[in-house]
Amino acid sequence: MTWVTWRQQRTEVLIAAGILALVAVVLLPTGIEMASAYHHDGLAACLGQTTSSSCDDAIHVFTGRFQSLGNLLAWFTLVPGLIGVVLAAPFVLELENGTHRLAWTQSITRRRWITSKLALTVGGALLAALVLTLLMTWWHTPLDRLNGRMDNSVYDTEGIVVFGYTLFALGLAIAVGVVWRRTIPAVVIAFIGYFAARITVDTWLRQRLVTPLTATWRGDFAPARLNHAWLISQQPSDKLGHPISLKIGRCAGAAAGHVKDVIVNGNCVVQNGDSYMHAVYQPASRFWLLQGIETSMFGGTALVLILFAAWWTHQRAA
Predict the structure, then answer these.
(1) Is 250 helix (H, G, I), strand (E, B) or coil?
(2) Entry pTM
(3) Residue 221 belongs to some domain of the structure
Protein backbone atom coordinates (compact mmCIF):
# COMPACT_ATOMS: atom_id res chain seq x y z
CA MET A 1 0.00 0.00 0.00
CA THR A 2 2.83 2.39 0.82
CA TRP A 3 4.53 1.72 -2.51
CA VAL A 4 1.31 2.32 -4.42
CA THR A 5 0.70 5.53 -2.52
CA TRP A 6 4.22 6.72 -3.32
CA ARG A 7 3.80 6.01 -7.02
CA GLN A 8 0.54 7.94 -7.10
CA GLN A 9 2.10 10.93 -5.33
CA ARG A 10 5.54 10.99 -6.86
CA THR A 11 4.67 13.73 -9.39
CA GLU A 12 3.59 16.11 -6.65
CA VAL A 13 6.57 15.09 -4.51
CA LEU A 14 8.89 15.90 -7.40
CA ILE A 15 7.15 19.27 -7.83
CA ALA A 16 7.71 20.04 -4.14
CA ALA A 17 11.32 18.93 -4.46
CA GLY A 18 11.69 21.17 -7.51
CA ILE A 19 10.39 24.15 -5.53
CA LEU A 20 12.94 23.48 -2.79
CA ALA A 21 15.67 23.09 -5.40
CA LEU A 22 14.82 26.53 -6.84
CA VAL A 23 14.96 27.99 -3.34
CA ALA A 24 18.37 26.39 -2.84
CA VAL A 25 19.63 27.76 -6.17
CA VAL A 26 18.76 31.27 -4.97
CA LEU A 27 20.03 30.87 -1.42
CA LEU A 28 23.28 28.96 -1.74
CA PRO A 29 25.37 31.40 -3.85
CA THR A 30 24.17 34.50 -1.99
CA GLY A 31 24.42 32.78 1.37
CA ILE A 32 28.03 31.77 0.73
CA GLU A 33 28.82 35.31 -0.40
CA MET A 34 27.20 36.82 2.71
CA ALA A 35 28.94 34.42 5.10
CA SER A 36 32.28 35.17 3.44
CA ALA A 37 31.71 38.94 3.73
CA TYR A 38 30.70 38.56 7.39
CA HIS A 39 33.95 36.80 8.28
CA HIS A 40 36.13 38.94 5.98
CA ASP A 41 34.84 42.17 7.55
CA GLY A 42 35.40 40.81 11.07
CA LEU A 43 31.84 41.56 12.13
CA ALA A 44 31.86 38.82 14.77
CA ALA A 45 34.17 41.04 16.84
CA CYS A 46 31.56 43.82 16.73
CA LEU A 47 28.80 41.84 18.41
CA GLY A 48 27.80 43.42 21.69
CA GLN A 49 29.69 46.65 21.03
CA THR A 50 27.63 49.84 21.09
CA THR A 51 30.26 52.60 21.09
CA SER A 52 32.60 51.67 18.23
CA SER A 53 32.06 53.92 15.23
CA SER A 54 34.12 51.61 13.02
CA CYS A 55 31.88 48.68 13.95
CA ASP A 56 28.76 50.76 13.36
CA ASP A 57 30.01 51.72 9.90
CA ALA A 58 30.96 48.13 9.03
CA ILE A 59 27.60 46.78 10.17
CA HIS A 60 25.75 49.52 8.30
CA VAL A 61 27.61 48.73 5.06
CA PHE A 62 27.06 44.98 5.48
CA THR A 63 23.33 45.20 6.25
CA GLY A 64 22.83 47.70 3.45
CA ARG A 65 24.49 45.28 1.05
CA PHE A 66 22.37 42.26 1.93
CA GLN A 67 19.25 43.53 3.70
CA SER A 68 17.41 44.35 0.47
CA LEU A 69 17.91 40.77 -0.72
CA GLY A 70 16.71 39.54 2.66
CA ASN A 71 13.55 41.62 2.29
CA LEU A 72 12.99 40.15 -1.17
CA LEU A 73 13.40 36.64 0.21
CA ALA A 74 10.64 37.43 2.71
CA TRP A 75 8.26 36.37 -0.08
CA PHE A 76 9.60 32.84 0.42
CA THR A 77 7.16 32.67 3.32
CA LEU A 78 4.61 31.69 0.66
CA VAL A 79 6.61 28.55 -0.15
CA PRO A 80 5.21 26.49 2.78
CA GLY A 81 1.68 27.19 1.55
CA LEU A 82 2.60 26.26 -2.01
CA ILE A 83 4.23 23.00 -0.92
CA GLY A 84 1.31 22.15 1.35
CA VAL A 85 -1.38 22.51 -1.31
CA VAL A 86 0.71 20.69 -3.92
CA LEU A 87 1.20 17.67 -1.66
CA ALA A 88 -2.52 17.64 -0.82
CA ALA A 89 -3.54 17.38 -4.47
CA PRO A 90 -3.11 13.56 -4.97
CA PHE A 91 -5.47 12.70 -2.12
CA VAL A 92 -8.18 14.98 -3.49
CA LEU A 93 -7.53 13.84 -7.06
CA GLU A 94 -8.24 10.21 -6.19
CA LEU A 95 -11.59 11.17 -4.71
CA GLU A 96 -12.39 13.34 -7.72
CA ASN A 97 -11.56 10.54 -10.19
CA GLY A 98 -13.14 7.83 -8.06
CA THR A 99 -10.06 5.61 -8.14
CA HIS A 100 -10.31 5.13 -4.38
CA ARG A 101 -13.20 2.74 -4.98
CA LEU A 102 -10.88 0.31 -6.76
CA ALA A 103 -8.54 0.22 -3.78
CA TRP A 104 -11.43 -0.37 -1.41
CA THR A 105 -12.50 -3.43 -3.40
CA GLN A 106 -9.01 -4.97 -3.32
CA SER A 107 -9.09 -6.11 0.32
CA ILE A 108 -7.86 -2.68 1.49
CA THR A 109 -10.06 -1.16 4.15
CA ARG A 110 -11.10 2.45 4.08
CA ARG A 111 -9.27 3.14 7.30
CA ARG A 112 -6.01 1.65 6.04
CA TRP A 113 -6.27 3.52 2.74
CA ILE A 114 -6.95 6.86 4.44
CA THR A 115 -4.24 6.33 7.05
CA SER A 116 -1.59 5.36 4.51
CA LYS A 117 -2.41 8.23 2.22
CA LEU A 118 -2.47 10.89 4.90
CA ALA A 119 0.58 9.57 6.77
CA LEU A 120 2.77 9.71 3.68
CA THR A 121 1.41 13.13 2.73
CA VAL A 122 1.97 14.62 6.18
CA GLY A 123 5.43 13.05 6.39
CA GLY A 124 6.40 14.56 3.05
CA ALA A 125 5.12 17.97 4.14
CA LEU A 126 7.11 17.87 7.38
CA LEU A 127 10.27 16.83 5.54
CA ALA A 128 9.86 19.67 3.04
CA ALA A 129 9.30 22.13 5.90
CA LEU A 130 12.47 20.91 7.61
CA VAL A 131 14.58 21.38 4.47
CA LEU A 132 13.15 24.86 3.88
CA THR A 133 13.75 25.88 7.51
CA LEU A 134 17.35 24.67 7.44
CA LEU A 135 18.06 26.54 4.20
CA MET A 136 16.52 29.80 5.38
CA THR A 137 18.12 29.62 8.84
CA TRP A 138 21.55 29.00 7.33
CA TRP A 139 21.13 31.92 4.91
CA HIS A 140 19.96 34.34 7.61
CA THR A 141 22.64 33.44 10.18
CA PRO A 142 24.96 36.47 9.65
CA LEU A 143 22.02 38.90 9.63
CA ASP A 144 20.49 37.17 12.66
CA ARG A 145 23.68 37.72 14.65
CA LEU A 146 23.59 41.43 13.87
CA ASN A 147 19.85 42.21 13.84
CA GLY A 148 18.13 39.33 15.63
CA ARG A 149 15.29 37.09 14.48
CA MET A 150 12.19 39.02 15.49
CA ASP A 151 11.59 40.85 12.22
CA ASN A 152 8.68 39.33 10.26
CA SER A 153 10.84 38.64 7.20
CA VAL A 154 13.10 36.42 9.34
CA TYR A 155 10.69 35.13 11.98
CA ASP A 156 8.38 33.59 9.36
CA THR A 157 11.08 31.34 7.89
CA GLU A 158 12.99 30.17 10.97
CA GLY A 159 12.30 28.23 14.14
CA ILE A 160 9.33 25.86 14.02
CA VAL A 161 6.56 27.99 12.51
CA VAL A 162 7.28 26.73 8.98
CA PHE A 163 6.05 23.28 10.05
CA GLY A 164 2.76 24.79 11.24
CA TYR A 165 2.35 26.85 8.06
CA THR A 166 2.96 23.87 5.78
CA LEU A 167 0.59 21.57 7.65
CA PHE A 168 -2.09 24.27 7.75
CA ALA A 169 -2.01 24.69 3.96
CA LEU A 170 -2.01 20.91 3.53
CA GLY A 171 -4.95 20.37 5.90
CA LEU A 172 -6.98 23.20 4.41
CA ALA A 173 -6.52 21.89 0.85
CA ILE A 174 -7.47 18.34 1.85
CA ALA A 175 -10.50 19.45 3.89
CA VAL A 176 -11.85 21.63 1.07
CA GLY A 177 -11.05 18.95 -1.49
CA VAL A 178 -12.80 16.03 0.19
CA VAL A 179 -16.01 18.05 0.42
CA TRP A 180 -15.84 19.70 -2.99
CA ARG A 181 -14.23 16.80 -4.93
CA ARG A 182 -12.55 19.28 -7.30
CA THR A 183 -8.78 19.30 -7.08
CA ILE A 184 -7.78 22.54 -8.80
CA PRO A 185 -10.46 24.74 -7.18
CA ALA A 186 -9.65 23.20 -3.78
CA VAL A 187 -5.94 23.90 -4.20
CA VAL A 188 -6.56 27.49 -5.29
CA ILE A 189 -9.03 28.21 -2.48
CA ALA A 190 -6.70 26.65 0.08
CA PHE A 191 -3.74 28.75 -1.05
CA ILE A 192 -5.85 31.91 -0.91
CA GLY A 193 -7.00 30.91 2.58
CA TYR A 194 -3.40 30.29 3.62
CA PHE A 195 -2.35 33.69 2.32
CA ALA A 196 -5.23 35.45 4.08
CA ALA A 197 -4.48 33.68 7.38
CA ARG A 198 -0.80 34.58 7.19
CA ILE A 199 -1.51 38.24 6.44
CA THR A 200 -3.92 38.42 9.39
CA VAL A 201 -1.44 36.85 11.79
CA ASP A 202 1.58 38.83 10.57
CA THR A 203 -0.07 42.24 10.59
CA TRP A 204 -2.55 42.00 13.47
CA LEU A 205 -2.64 38.87 15.63
CA ARG A 206 1.03 38.13 16.33
CA GLN A 207 1.64 41.30 18.32
CA ARG A 208 -1.35 40.37 20.50
CA LEU A 209 -0.40 36.76 21.25
CA VAL A 210 1.60 37.88 24.26
CA THR A 211 1.17 41.25 25.97
CA PRO A 212 4.03 43.42 24.66
CA LEU A 213 6.41 45.34 26.87
CA THR A 214 7.02 49.10 26.86
CA ALA A 215 10.07 51.27 27.33
CA THR A 216 10.51 55.04 27.70
CA TRP A 217 13.93 56.67 27.51
CA ARG A 218 15.54 60.05 27.19
CA GLY A 219 18.16 60.87 24.62
CA ASP A 220 19.31 59.35 21.36
CA PHE A 221 20.32 55.88 22.58
CA ALA A 222 17.67 53.21 23.17
CA PRO A 223 18.07 50.93 26.21
CA ALA A 224 19.92 47.64 25.77
CA ARG A 225 16.74 45.59 26.28
CA LEU A 226 15.55 46.78 22.87
CA ASN A 227 18.53 45.12 21.19
CA HIS A 228 17.26 42.62 18.59
CA ALA A 229 13.68 43.19 19.81
CA TRP A 230 10.61 43.49 17.61
CA LEU A 231 9.59 47.16 17.75
CA ILE A 232 5.82 47.21 17.31
CA SER A 233 5.68 50.99 17.59
CA GLN A 234 7.99 53.83 18.53
CA GLN A 235 7.14 57.51 18.90
CA PRO A 236 7.99 60.68 20.83
CA SER A 237 6.47 60.89 24.30
CA ASP A 238 6.61 62.68 27.59
CA LYS A 239 8.62 61.21 30.45
CA LEU A 240 5.64 59.08 31.51
CA GLY A 241 5.40 57.45 28.09
CA HIS A 242 2.31 59.32 26.92
CA PRO A 243 2.56 59.83 23.15
CA ILE A 244 2.84 63.36 21.79
CA SER A 245 2.64 64.83 18.34
CA LEU A 246 6.02 66.47 17.87
CA LYS A 247 7.34 68.50 14.96
CA ILE A 248 10.56 70.49 14.82
CA GLY A 249 9.97 74.02 13.59
CA ARG A 250 10.40 77.69 14.29
CA CYS A 251 7.83 79.02 16.72
CA ALA A 252 6.55 82.50 16.05
CA GLY A 253 8.22 84.98 18.40
CA ALA A 254 10.62 82.41 19.87
CA ALA A 255 13.60 83.89 21.65
CA ALA A 256 17.01 83.51 20.11
CA GLY A 257 19.45 81.02 21.53
CA HIS A 258 17.07 78.23 22.38
CA VAL A 259 18.34 74.78 21.55
CA LYS A 260 15.12 73.60 19.90
CA ASP A 261 11.79 75.14 19.04
CA VAL A 262 9.22 72.35 19.07
CA ILE A 263 5.57 72.19 18.16
CA VAL A 264 3.89 69.68 20.52
CA ASN A 265 0.28 68.67 19.91
CA GLY A 266 -0.20 71.81 17.91
CA ASN A 267 1.11 74.10 20.64
CA CYS A 268 4.34 76.02 20.31
CA VAL A 269 6.78 75.31 23.12
CA VAL A 270 10.53 75.58 23.55
CA GLN A 271 12.45 72.44 24.46
CA ASN A 272 15.95 72.55 25.87
CA GLY A 273 17.72 69.21 26.09
CA ASP A 274 16.88 65.68 24.92
CA SER A 275 13.36 64.47 24.13
CA TYR A 276 11.75 61.26 25.30
CA MET A 277 10.89 58.24 23.17
CA HIS A 278 8.38 55.51 23.94
CA ALA A 279 8.43 52.04 22.37
CA VAL A 280 6.09 49.07 22.44
CA TYR A 281 8.04 45.90 21.76
CA GLN A 282 8.43 42.16 22.03
CA PRO A 283 11.88 41.28 23.41
CA ALA A 284 14.18 38.90 21.60
CA SER A 285 13.87 36.47 24.51
CA ARG A 286 10.26 35.76 23.49
CA PHE A 287 11.20 34.35 20.09
CA TRP A 288 10.55 30.71 21.03
CA LEU A 289 7.46 31.56 23.09
CA LEU A 290 5.83 33.32 20.14
CA GLN A 291 6.99 30.56 17.78
CA GLY A 292 5.45 27.90 20.01
CA ILE A 293 2.11 29.70 20.27
CA GLU A 294 1.89 30.39 16.55
CA THR A 295 2.96 26.87 15.58
CA SER A 296 0.33 25.45 17.94
CA MET A 297 -2.32 27.63 16.32
CA PHE A 298 -1.53 26.64 12.75
CA GLY A 299 -0.57 23.06 13.57
CA GLY A 300 -3.63 22.53 15.77
CA THR A 301 -5.93 23.90 13.07
CA ALA A 302 -4.20 21.63 10.55
CA LEU A 303 -4.77 18.60 12.77
CA VAL A 304 -8.48 19.39 13.07
CA LEU A 305 -8.78 19.85 9.30
CA ILE A 306 -6.94 16.60 8.53
CA LEU A 307 -9.02 14.62 11.04
CA PHE A 308 -12.16 16.14 9.56
CA ALA A 309 -11.03 15.13 6.07
CA ALA A 310 -10.32 11.59 7.25
CA TRP A 311 -13.73 11.32 8.93
CA TRP A 312 -15.55 12.77 5.94
CA THR A 313 -13.78 10.41 3.54
CA HIS A 314 -14.43 7.39 5.74
CA GLN A 315 -18.10 8.17 6.32
CA ARG A 316 -19.27 9.88 3.14
CA ALA A 317 -16.98 8.93 0.27
CA ALA A 318 -18.50 6.33 -1.99
Answers:
(1) coil
(2) 0.89
(3) no
